[in-house]
Amino acid sequence: MTNTNYLIIGSGVAGLTFALRIAEQFPNKKVTIVTKANADESNTKYAQGGIAIVTDKNEDSYQKHIEDTLICGDGLCDEAVVKMVVTEGPKRLKELIEWGAKFDKNSDGNLNLGKEGGHSENRVVHHKDQTGHEIERAILMQVYQKENITVLDHHFATDLITAENCCLGAIVLDEKTKQISTYLSDITLLATGGIGHLYGHTTNPVIATGDGIAMAYRAHADIKEMEFIQFHPTAFYEASTGSKFLISEAVRGFGAYLRTKKGHRFMIDYDSREELASRDIVSQSIDLELKKSGDDCVYLDCTHLDLEAFKKHFPMIYNHCLKSGIDISKDWIPVVPAQHYLCGGIVVDTNGKTSVTNLFACGECTQTGLHGANRLASNSLLEALVYSSRIYEYLANPNLKIKIVKKEILESDTAKKTEIDSNYLDVLKAKLQHLMRQNAGIVRYDTDLLNAKEQLLKWKEEIEKIGNTHQISSSYYELLNMITIGTLIVSQSIERQENRGGFVKFKAPSFAKKKS
Length: 516
Ligand code: FAD
Ligand code: SIN
What we know:
Layout: E1 2-9, H1 13-25, E2 31-34, E3 51-52, H2 62-72, H3 79-98, E4 113-114, E5 124-125, H4 131-144, E6 149-152, E7 155-163, E8 166-174, E9 180-190, H5 211-218, E10 223-224, E11 229-236, H6 249-253, E12 257-259, H7 279-293, E13 298-301, H8 307-313, H9 315-323, E14 333-342, E15 345-347, E16 359-361, E17 366-367, H10 380-396, E18 418-419, H11 422-439, E19 443-445, H12 446-469, E20 470-471, H13 474-495, E21 504-506
Helix pairs in contact: 1-4, 1-10, 2-3, 3-10, 5-13, 8-9, 11-12, 11-13, 12-13
The structure holds flavin-adenine dinucleotide (FAD) and succinic acid.
């Protein structure tokens, strides 16, 4: 059994920023980060476009960023939250720069600001097309210098420990020793990121399996707006399954056109903002075009753009295309929409508090009210930075009294049981991913959702039974968590009666569905 003051689950931008700030404030308190893969592995690491922050007060304003966010969220954002996040952005950027993160500048020394879908101005602060990698690098380096922070990589949190609606810590599986341990903490922070691998075809890395949301659900925390799955319009199309390489929206901000196979610039038919309409509209338009044509993908045309400037801003994208046989100066890039982000999640207030005492949550696993029915591009890193600091400020208040609940904790049962057949888990995961793509994709139908719910409940029962009699592994928990998240998405999609933002549901299909 391990005792710590602050237990942080996840080492993306949300978890690391909170860890760093709380450890600086309380050098005598213990901060423990558990993270299920390498310390830097996270959705954060793959962020390309950048962070949306108002820095150029001549052209831009907080009001414009607020309005863009509200329009994008299609009436479901919490306006007070939007104002708070947008106006706190510049302070968080200053801190990131102080921690050593480098952002691209123009020859005049001002920040080079990119543009993405739904933004009325250039306001996206970036480090080439590898912004997330740079942020993760800089914060992690600071974290490693703090003596009171312990980073436990390859440690998988399986469940929260609760009593009287209060969180006391978590159960953690050490992937190297296979030891299951109890971590008791005054405060627990879930910063476990997204859910991409539930869909299989996703821009997310394999860590994104919704673990934190599923743990919070089992601990009876409030979970909301799970139906708002964001599909990014432009993932590099490859016939094989699995993670998909992202072609940043900033490429369209740089002037690229979307075309059908026949060359038609179809976004002109759908929205006056054309290629820079918000993500929900572009993904839904591509989906419709593909259903009409029967083609496998649409194309991003960069052939008219300044090649040298492109290579400077997007070196990773340029090289990825080249390695895949696409010379962007001559060839169009084949693209399809892919799961990218979850707008809903664990409900938190403006201090990151969940409905369970002493349990906080931050980042992509949360529902703060910022995104509403569709997240504005590059508002996610911003949200994680703002909320991790707000949680820190709340907990740093010297007058705060932390509720202590005592409970007799029994060490987890680590007695050897039969291992679960990994082939069984792989096959069920593939079936689950296929079901989610077919029945809970960009456009959904009531009958498909009802069928999916029935299937998911059967799988949940089946896998829970197996868990009682077999040795528990992280792959087992990931699958259980993904089935739980799938059930939440499907159930909340059935409940929602009105199409908004990224959520589109009909009674029955008017076009033949494409195979996933
Ligand atoms: P993550 O960064 O995903 O971190 C989650 C952490 O939790 C990981 O360390 C993971 O290993 C750990 N974890 C998960 N489950 C467990 C468990 N059971 N036990 C222990 N540890 C666990 N947003 C923007 O604002 N701008 C962008 O330009 C942008 N580009 C993107 C590009 C790509 C390809 C992707 C995938 C996302 C992009 N996003 C972007 C979204 C953004 O990167 C994420 O939403 C954000 O980084 C999430 O941060 P986080 O800290 O909440 O979660
Ligand atoms: C991108 O670079 O297109 C991703 C930006 C985001 O998800 O906010």
